[in-house]
Amino acid sequence: MVVRFQGGSNAGHTVWVGDQRFAFHHIPTGVLRGKTSILGAGMVLDLAVLLDEETKLSDAGVQVHSSLHISENAHLILPYHKTLEEAEEKRLGDKAIGTTLRGIGPAYEDKTARRGVRVGDLRDPDWLADKLSDVVNYKNLILERVYHAPPVDAVKLFDDLRALYDHYADVICDTGRLVAEAFDQGKRVLFEGAQGPMLDIDWGTYPYVTSCSLISAAACAGAGVGPKHIGRVIGVAKAYTTRVGYGPFPTEVEERLAKTMREQGGEFGTTTGRARRIGWFDAVVVKKAVRLSGLDALAITHLDVLGQFAEIPVCTSYLCDEEQITEFPNDLRRLAKCTPRYTSLSGWNTDISSARRFSDLPDNAQRYVRAIEEMVGVPVSHVLVGRQRDQSIIL
């Protein structure tokens, strides 16, 4: 069983099977291996996007619906969420967050304000119609009077949601109970995260963050299980650093170099297609992620992208107001003043994509991985030297 426990269609995962590319937005990637797929209560779901994702996977020969279960407690992303988000980003101008415009923030805002529409609300048409009438009237006041945007048609929205419900009615359930039963039966459960701790609503580079918690502890709340069930936490970090959207980025490299690394590493958002910003490996950031999520191990991806360099800088601390710091600051204004302090490691200047064992890697590539372990304080469990499954070296 693989469980997505937070986020929505903003969090894309690209998976390659041979030469076939699969783009995931809601559905856990374990569906490719026939695993039970859970969309947990902590998620916000755009059912139209989910249906499109399911259809594309099914057309590619992947069985989705028979293994899918959707939490009745998950909240829905509705058309007015996207309209409001786009209008607010335009209003902010050069102070915009740089969101994916998928309605994630407004959907979580409604969840917290207790006016959200949940998946389980779709079951009762009378209840749904009454709820939509109240919420849409409220949203239309904002759309028309604040943003001068067109209103939402509550009747059309009701009809669209009921049609989507007809497709998913048989897989909507109490997913927390399903996960608990899997544990009781001794089954293996993987909680699949999305995004990373620096986009966490509490611990990330606020306000340039997403709208929910992304650290490992969020798996318990979003999936509906107790912390005693979490047996091992593996973080995923690239051999360099990337970011999508705005906000301070201490190790960011100049665009000419970023373009080269971006093209080799395929650094374009799965959901938006936006070019990712590129920087050198930042041990200050990763150490904070290790601490926040209680990582047992770290998987290092994209090591092959660094094969073009004779020397590779790694950030080990920041200089801020003439003070050297090794802890990632919570204050965005302080972070914006930080400049990276680098340790230079010798590169290997060769293609490593054919390596299948750690001992196959050049000595300097091995030293790079061991240096990361020492800098961030946890062992490296996997090293990825390409996008294919057999290019994952397990240490």
Write the layout of secondary structure elements.
Elements: E1 2-4, E2 13-17, E3 20-24, E4 37-39, E5 44-45, H1 47-59, E6 68-71, E7 75-76, H2 79-92, H3 104-112, H4 125-145, H5 154-168, E8 172-173, H6 175-184, E9 190-192, H7 218-223, E10 234-238, E11 241-243, H8 255-265, E12 277-279, H9 283-293, E13 297-301, E14 311-320, E15 323-325, H10 332-336, E16 339-346, H11 363-376, E17 380-384, E18 392-394
What do these coordinates show?
By secondary structure, the chain is an alpha/beta fold. The chain has a five-stranded parallel beta sheet. A four-stranded mixed beta sheet has the order 10-13-17-18, with helices on one face. It has a three-stranded antiparallel beta sheet with strand order 15-14-16. The model has no long low-confidence stretch (mean pLDDT 95). The protein is built from eleven helices and 18 strands. 37% of the residues are buried. The protein has three domains: 2-73 and 172-228, 3-Layer(aba) Sandwich (Adenylosuccinate Synthetase, Chain A, domain 1), CATH 3.40.440; 76-168, Adenylosuccinate Synthetase, subunit A, domain 2 (Orthogonal Bundle), CATH 1.10.300; 234-394, Adenylosuccinate Synthetase, subunit A, domain 3 (Adenylosuccinate Synthetase, Chain A, domain 3, Alpha-Beta Complex), CATH 3.90.170. The radius of gyration is 22 Å and the shape is globular. The longest helix has 21 residues, at 125-145. Helix 2 packs across helix 3 (104-112) and helix 4 (125-145) packs across helix 5.
| Element-level helix/strand string | EEEEEHEEHHHHEHEHEEHEHEEEHEHEE
Shape: globular
Largest β-sheet summary: 5 strands, parallel
Radius of gyration, in Å, reads 22 Å
Q: How many strands in all?
A: 18
CATH class category name of the largest domain: Alpha Beta
Termini separation comes to: 24 Å
Low-confidence parts = none
Known CATH architecture of the largest domain: Alpha-Beta Complex
Mean pLDDT: 95
What's the CATH H-level homologous superfamily of the largest domain? Answer: Adenylosuccinate Synthetase, subunit A, domain 3
| Structural classification | alpha/beta
Q: Determine the number of helices (DSSP H or I, runs of at least 4 residues).
A: 11
Helicity level = 25-40%
- For this structure, the CATH topology of the largest domain is Adenylosuccinate Synthetase, Chain A, domain 3
Please give the order of strands in the largest beta sheet. Answer: 8-6-4-1-9
Number of domains: 3
